[in-house]
Design brief:
Radius of gyration of chain E: 21 Å
CATH topology of chain D: Four Helix Bundle (Hemerythrin (Met), subunit A)
CATH class of chain D: Mainly Alpha
Number of strands of chain E: 0
Number of domains of chain D: 1
Chains: A mainly alpha, B mainly alpha, C mainly alpha, D mainly alpha, E mainly alpha
Structural class of chain D: mainly alpha
Largest sheet of chain E: none
Order of helices and strands of chain D: HHHHHH
Shape of chain D: globular
Strand content of chain D: under 5%
Radius of gyration of chain D: 21 Å
Structural class of chain E: mainly alpha
Largest sheet of chain D: none
Order of helices and strands of chain E: HHHHHHHHHHHHHHHHHH
Number of helices of chain E: 18
Shape of chain E: globular
Number of domains of chain E: 1
Distance between the termini of chain E: 17 Å
Helix content of chain D: over 70%
Helix content of chain E: over 70%
Number of strands of chain D: 0
CATH superfamily of chain D: NADH-ubiquinone/plastoquinone oxidoreductase chain 6, subunit NuoJ
Oligomer: heteropentamer
Number of helices of chain D: 6
Strand content of chain E: under 5%
Largest interface: C-D, 74 and 85 residues
Amino acid sequence: MGTFITFPELLLWLPLLIALGCFFIKKESVTKSFALLGSLLVLAIAIVSLSYTSAAFKTYNDVNYIWLSHIGTSFYLSLEGAGRLLALLTAVCFPIIFISTYKNSYKNANAFYGLMMLSQCGLMGVFVAKDALVFYFFWELALIPVYFLCSRWGGEKSIQATFKFFVYTFTGSLLMLTGIIYVYLHTGTRAFEDGTIAQHSFALQSFYNTTLTAGEQGWLFWLFFVAFAIKMPVFPFHSWQPDTYDQSPTSVTMVLSGIMVKMGLFGVIRWLIPVFPLAIPKVTTLVMVLCIAGIIYASCIAMVQDNLKKLVAYSSIAHIGLMCAAVFAMNEIALQGVMIQMFNHGINIIGLWIVIDIIEKQTGIKNMSQLGGIAQKAPALTIMLVVIAFANIALPLTNAFVGEFMLFTGVFKYSLWMAVISGTSVILAGVYTLNMLQKVLYGNTNAVTENMKDISLNQKLGLGLIVVMVFIFGIYPQPMIELTKTAVSVLVSK
Amino acid sequence: MSNIFKFIWLIPLLPLLGFLITGLGRNFLSKTAAGFVGSAVIFASFVISVLAFLQVKNGDTAAVQYFDLINIKAFKIAFEFKIDQLSSLFLLIITGVGFLIHVYSTSYMHDEPTKDFSKYFSYLNLFVFSMLVLVMGGNYVIMFIGWEGVGLCSYLLIGYWFKNNEYTNAAKKAFIMNRIGDLGFLLAVFWLITKLGTVSYDEVFTAANIAKLSIEDITAITSLFFIGAIGKSAQIPLYSWLPDAMAGPTPVSALIHAATMVTAGIYMIARSNILYTMAPATQHVIAIVGLTTAIVAATIAIKQNDIKKVLAYSTVSQLGYMFLGLGVGAYTGAVFHVMTHAFFKALLFLGAGSVIHAMSGEQDMRNMGGLKKYMSITHITFLIGCIAIAGMPPFSGFFSKDEILAAAFAEHPLLWVAGVAGAMMTAFYMFRLYTMTFLGKFRGTQEQEHHLHESPGAITFPLIVLAILAIMGGWIGIPEIFIHGGHKLEAFLEPIFAGSNAITVKHEMSHNTEFLLMGISVLLSLFALLFGLKKFSNYNKQSDKENTGFAKVLEDKWYFDELYKKIITRPLRNVSLFFNNVIEKKGIDGVVNGTGKFINYGSRQLRWLQSGQVGAYVLLMVIGMLVLFILQLFIKN
Amino acid sequence: MDIKAYIALSLTLFIIGIIGVLTRRNAIIVFMCVELMLNAVNLLMVAFSNMHQASGAAKALPTFASDAQIFVFFIMIVAAAEVSVGLAIIVMLYRNTHNIDVSFLNRLKN
Amino acid sequence: MSIITISFILLSLMAIGSGVMMIASKSPVNSILWLIVVFFAISGHYILLNAQFLAIVNLIVYAGAIMVLFLFVVMLMNLNAESEPPKNYRLQAIGIIAGGCLLLVLLSALMMVKQQQPVMLAGGNAGLIKTLGKVLFTDYVLPFEISSVLFLSAMVGAVVLGKKTKLIENEN
Amino acid sequence: MNAILLTAVWGVVMMFSGVFIKSKTAPKYLAIAGIIIIFIANLLELNAFGIGVLHVNIDTKEMLNISSFNLSFLAVVFACTLLFFLLSGSDIEKVGDDVSEYFGLIFFVLCGVSLVSTYNTLLLLFIGIEILSIPLYILTGSDKRNLKSNEAALKYFLMGAFSTGILLMGIAFIYGGNNNGSFYINNLEMGEGPMPAMIAVGLVFMVIALSFKVSAAPFHFWTPDVYDGAPTVFTSFMSTIVKVAGFFAFVRLFENAFGKVQPQWQNLIVFITVLTLLIGNVTAVFQQSVKRMLAYSSIAQAGFMMLAVFALNNTAKEGLVLYAAAYSIATIGIFAVLIKMNDYTIDGFNGLAKTQPQLALCTTVFLLSLTGIPLTGGFMSKFFMLSAAAETGTRFWLIIVAVLFAAISAYYYFRVIQAMYFKEATTVVIDEKEITRGFKITLAIAAVLIIAIGIYPEFIIGWMYH
């Protein structure tokens, strides 16, 4: 072990420290700036870490502390592959969220920001953990702050909605825990540097090397998959999501939809497919059918939604469904698409939430039918929304296009008909997105939107960053592909 | 200026720059500045395009790769441009006509507030940019970028007056119908990638790669691409967005819906001609769809009263002709018709715009009439356009249409008969339009009459230029039978279609037959033309009866919109509502909440076990003991 | 005597005790029934002790012959202690409610 | 049939009969008296089993001390037959059936064993006071001492619970 | 041995202190001193300080089996008791007049706990259980003016006595059934073959009696009523320390006596486990009173601890000790807060986070631990239990059932959290004067301990391998 601090540690502990710091600051404005600066620092580290990706810098990216050695677990973190990309996403999203909601004021702001940073810590942990128990720890830990954030600062029905969300995901996680235990008991021994030799091992590598029969893998797969599917969420495990998104404070919804849902995909990529290779051929069709049914289903529901937040929620279900389907298509194109799309979807949906938040904060309304004419009052907002909305439906030269293009190609490679059916979501997405734009932005102003003001500087900055990223990654996505290329090829070769 | 190809990236980039300048600077730029910037960048592109064209004419072509869009093991998609005969020709049309429309717009849109004026120009520039990317792209993905880009721009431009819900509905419709086509396009691209691992034209069209594709593959790919073309080029069944798209400002209609965007489908098929030639089944479908569209749209156009609607349906109809041409293998003819159509249709639209401008926004022909004396330039140019579209020699439309019809006859005489019927209708409704607008007495209000005036120079200049082109544009494609070596266009495009020509069986027609066909079609069209002229020269609003019977069907556009509503929109909405209200709320969420409720219910029931009575507790315990004893003693493990 | 006879006898007494607990509602009688159960156990234990002696098993343990009887002795001790506490509780309840019917004990339920 | 068998049967019938009477009789006092009869019968069994010490202790502790205590309490409370509220016959029937089933299950399991295991009667010196006393104070000294804790706590309990305090009905 | 002697002696000391010391608060300090002494003596016997084993040596004729495993369990018990005294000691004073007697009885209970965790013969198991139970009957009824307390005491007593009868019947049959005529639990000579009918009957009786003690369904019926009726401080003690001791006894008996024939009786345990989880978790959902909810929750947690009996391997034992610590600390902590509340219903907790943020935070940690959220001891202990059960290699479905019920448990624990954080108080929720600085600090220490166990459980497990 090196004596220096490694990147995964920095990314993990820094948010935690900032969170603790936030709890002790009494003044709201100070807390805000502190959290913002802190998250920017995290972002800076994440960006710096990008220049140390090669194998030569392994010691910067790997860390392994002895922890509970006699049951074969250690505090093993590693920044690599899909995890690196998602850690980057996490690092990117928080400052943007903080910037664009800078003007929002919260009761007990210190607790709010503290919990936000705690959730960042949890998310980072999920993305860097290379030990099953550590992974599970952070998997749950990311949930707790969000639970409090949603319930405490959410809408009027937030307590029930969040609770449903919590119990739902908690149930899934517990099922995964049983799966982890089962796999754990079928791993080989693990020797530690302190001389302990544990009977079994929680290390990711040991999980990859288990000697489970195809039958066992078959049912273990579902234990894991349900947890991930609930988190993503994949049809028909999604019913917590629209309510939660609707009721949560928007900055938390951003975290939820931008980053947390990626935990599920990430889990599938790192912890599911490579661990149960024998189960995959048997389940692929079923899972993909679920995903694709979910795409169409969610898109259809999104078309008839009046509630802006629920519309975005259902659109997110559709998008995630596509990504999940692509993961199970298990070819290089699809996986590569998933990798970059995870990032891009995060960016785009956060952008959408920022806009919705602005509209809701100003008008107090989230039903589209009661809005209209915002384009006249807030042209800058309109431009941002239009750009992000079109990015969300994967228009070429926006970031999501490249991702979705690869996703569809991957699915197509797996099955023509699945690609055709899921492809119709391209149309449906167009329908509901344009409906939204029309109802919210166009037409004449009404009593509610009459006094709409255009966005403030901080919001402009936040949205501007997103729009810039939308175009940069839309026009030149290759760097992001390079970042995850090896991870994909490793996965495909499994 | 040794190699202009080094600078071709400027062609799309300049409009993009224009878009950024006018878009971001909409709060600072004056109208003049915005109009100038917007037009100047297009002009600059035009100049470069001309230079590039000249170099291509010398036999030079180029494919330039800039950077990798996607580069993974399975495939590589580069950001690449391809300049060859086909794309350089389209570049000329787009930038040339585009420039004229920009110029026209500076005047036409002058009444708009400064901000919106800038916005308008930025959209126009963006549109030109997208269209340029579409035709310059060196592979299908780049083409798709432009393909969707024009869809987006048309959405933005149709919904330019966004306060009006009708307009935004039209914009939405346009985008979504385009997207349906785009899906077909995308699937075709996926298919190519899956089979070949590349989408670059240069690689796809090599013999080795094509040999990898089975006939089913090719048929499927071409059909899917054709679905894309149907959407973009407004063919049955996805044509209805185009007439609705007249909601946008008139120059936009001219640009998008006449000269450029809708021809993307033709460009794409011409680009992929070799694939289509190898898929005769698809070609038959294309020919039939094209012909049907041509005739159906023409019938609808006969009964429309909105000046722009008539033109829109005529566009649809003309596009049908082009597809007929593609379907029968007359690629050159189709491209030729694209070009001539761009000239005269832009001319007609702009002329119509001039009329509307003069009529203070009035679009109903029934309220026009007799404009001849007020607007002489508009009148003459418009008349030229009408003659050109009616296919009267030696105007441009004649040559291109004739080439298609000749090819159709060679394929099957019935196609020709139907095509001629369509041409007759074209002549009829165009002259109905012309007569109702320019001849007879003025039927509008006093106030409108008072305002009638000829449009300013910025409007008439493009009209004049286009009128000249509408007359002479066809001369580059004079058939062999008139002048030996007359068909310069065919010679120019020869390298593009060489592959196809090599495998198609040429139906050689005798010159006599050709002359005969030509004569018949011209005569019939002339007859229809005169009939239209005669019938409507004394048009009277009061004497106009309500349409009944078949005429009513035509006026109501064959009830296509209603049909869509009935078989697609409404069922989809009902299904969605069913999903939302029944499956989601009662089904899935019901199960989830039901679990919670069930546990709650169980909790309420189970607590009655806890009755508080010691006797009952002991009884339950004894029963528990009984169970355990039986379990242990009498049930073997 | 066969041990089965003792087993049958003592189980019968035991079950009688249980039935008493089940059916009676007077706290004192319930308690007495418990005492009956304990006595049934005591009897069985002594019987088992003698059974082991008869079979002569496990000579290794020096005290085995007396083990069970000592155990019974302890049971009696415990029973006595229990009775003192139990009666104290019953008396306390009686003082507060003037009733020792267990079926009236339903302030605590659900 | 030997005299031992006869006395065994007699004593058993006596024990079972009085046991049934105990749970069946309405008056608590009667119940107590029937229980004392049971104790006597069991003591008789102890004698048959050559456990003289236990037989005596049983009489002294149970019949003598404990039952008298019960009797005192019953008298103190002035409980009689009428104080028992009307019975719920259905519950009783269920109770008897449940108990009967239990007995049936247990007996059927235990009586199925074919092999006979005789019980030594009237022999050996395990039950003598001398033997028991010696074992109790040597081998069993720990439990013996520890049970003092039991008694202490029982004593404390009786004192704590028995002390009189005024009643406040506190429904919390 | 240290523990048994010292607890008994200190119980006597406490009793006499009542005679000599008139102050009402003094016994608390005496008791705290006593428990610290006992704790340290226990650690000395465990050689936790590395200065060699120091203990009173009495020839017990192998009736006791003192191992580091047992001692580490006792260490956990005493530590929890210390915490209990520190947090709720002053509330014991409020129950009634006989303060020193209450403390004395608690020490006697601890003596019983020490016995049942080290016994090697069925006799000491029986005596231990009685020593443990009889003081509890008294403590349950110690709030004499309260009819609920009276009623609880009588119910507890009657049913406890009933279960004693069953326990003894079990012991008798085990004694009769084994050829050695022995009460020593490791001397029963159980072969691998099928059990003799008498042993089987005895075993079932033992399962029933011990299930009763640990309040496993369907022998749990006394639990909610007694826990509800007893003075809250004593409920806190009963539902934690006493209950885990019961489990310890359970595991010891079945591991040593019937470990070899485990497959033959595992079905019983599975049946009881599932039923316990079901009844405990599901019934708790509807409870409005936090006290009663905790009673059901203790049943639910018992269901999880039953997994240790099911598994009976090393992991299970480690897990049981962990569970004892995590569960006891958390429950004692919640009860300590609950006692201070004016209203025991869940609504009574409304808005606690506003008025007493530290208390609310600590309570949240405890509740999260009971739910089994990572980073808390509750997770680690549940994890060990599940692992242990999975290690048996049979009936994997059981642990899936267990986690599903754990998910239900979130439902009722989180209701309290919701009340504290997300709801507005309608009345004064808590008596501010009661909340001293010391109380807060102790509570915080308890919360930190919970998290410490969650992060690094080896500091407790480590004791077992001294």
